[in-house]
Amino acid sequence: MAPRLEAEHLFKVFGRRPHDAVERLRKDADREELRADGTTAAVIDASFRVEAGEIFVVMGLSGSGKSTLLRMLNGLLEPTAGRVRFDGQDLTTLPDRALRELRSKKISMVFQHFALFPHRSVRDNAAYGLEVQGVPRAERVRRADEALALCGLAGWEKSWPDELSGGMQQRVGLARALATDADLLLMDESFSALDPLIRRDMQDQLLELQKTLKKTIVFITHDLNEAMRLGDRIAVMRDGRIVQTGTAEDILLRPEGDYVASFIQDVDRSRVLTAAAVMDTDVRGDEADCGCETAAPGTPFTELCAISARLSHPVAVLDEGRALVGVVPRQRLVGFLGDERGEPAACDSDGGRKVIGRA
Length: 359
Prior knowledge:
Elements: E1 5-14, H1 18-26, H2 31-35, E2 40-50, E3 55-59, H3 66-73, E4 81-86, E5 89-90, H4 96-105, E6 107-110, H5 122-126, H6 128-133, H7 137-150, H8 166-179, E7 184-188, H9 196-213, E8 216-221, H10 224-230, E9 233-238, E10 241-246, H11 248-253, H12 258-264, H13 275-278, H14 301-309, E11 315-318, E12 324-328, H15 330-336, E13 345-347, E14 353-355
Parallel strand pairs: 3-8, 3-9, 6-7, 7-8
Antiparallel strand pairs: 1-2, 1-4, 4-5, 9-10, 11-12, 13-14
Helix pairs in contact: 7-8, 8-9
Protein name: Glycine betaine/proline transport system ATP-binding protein
Keywords: ATP-binding, CBS domain, Nucleotide-binding, Transport
Family: Belongs to the ABC transporter superfamily.
């Protein structure tokens, strides 16, 4: 199947002679070299695919180009070079009117700072996208109230934005995006302005909604823990370029280069890893029917540790057909938590430890 969204060799350059700058970048010109000439290369040769129903997270520090990249995905910024395809349609060739139509019906954006209208009720804020579309009043009230209920705001429909907490205001912003029933949600640092506990609550809310709605989401963040918690796949950006794309486990266990490796040093591996990531697959046996406690490939690391603590032997990992697909010795669990320097470690076949995943 074709991807829902595809970025193909995207460049965004600000300044004089941007197209000349793109050609220089294609010939491996340095970003700082261009800056000396008064040109800023915000995004450099970015390519990725997002499948339907996937949460694709773009992560990077301030100035890495992630927000600029996001705004090219719905045509708010025109790429200097490259293509954006949504459901097979090249957005870079659409006229302004068609782009506005697309943004009003098929692509919604959730901003960092809520962007609520203070003079509109919670219900009218949630219904704003539908109002722009020309949806009749009764229909947009119904859909707005349904979206607010999904976001845990039933009963707050007639309230004003200043009567809500920051977390509740962000839920209104999310409800506004959901009310339009858009196929693609673009979320630009949507939770970063919230307090840590509220932020985690919003992450939980998004994951819970995704189980039912299965939206295609591109989520921007500078927080690797948030990226690993939310993302089906993650793209790591540095200085305008995507330096690695993969699952949370890919990035955690197989970082590509020192830059990515430096990010993962402080990540809580126990919140990311599963039995499939840490098990030893060099095992024999077609089926396992022992009466002892076992794990599945998707068993979370913390649960796996609890199972191991109750057993005097390695934990057996069984697939849905009760076939043995791996085992997890207790020493291997300890090894994957990392050494005192924060480096991911695993066990050698002779029981020793070795550092893995370093570039």
